[in-house]
Amino acid sequence: MSTDINKAAIRQYVDAFNRGDWQTMQKLFADDAVVYGVLGWGRLNDVLPTWIRLHEALQMKLEVVDLVAEGHSVALRLNESGRAVGQFFHHPATGKTYEAVAMEWFELRNGLITRRWGARDSAGIYRQLGYTA
């Protein structure tokens, strides 16, 4: 697949996440895809409930800053923002907002995501939201 097709798939991933369109999100991942992130790792069905919780409780939004592709890999730098409007795990809604830089790396096969790694400053996000350990 061309790098343009892979980059388009990742833009669709960001758009689907921002809309909370989990059906489209599932279509962007290969059946054997593995997702690695700061809250754990597993198959998409293992991590999707956490993503839904993030989206609903923190009104999490992603903004693409940089998108770079080479071969079957795509790197993404994002501005992530949100507001704590619901309970997230044991943390209450604080109404506070946050902003952070996030990095994600993807591997794709035939236009589908096979691996996704995500990194962000979770400690900084928690501080901004007023969460304690």
UniProtKB/TrEMBL annotation:
Species per Swiss-Prot/TrEMBL record = Andreprevotia lacus DSM 23236
Residues folding into a coiled coil are: none
One Gene Ontology term from the biological process aspect of the record: polyketide metabolic process
Membrane-spanning residues where?
Answer: none
Which superkingdom heads the taxonomic lineage of this protein's source? Bacteria
What is the name attached to this protein's record? SnoaL-like polyketide cyclase
User: SUPFAM superfamilies, per this entry?
Assistant: NTF2-like
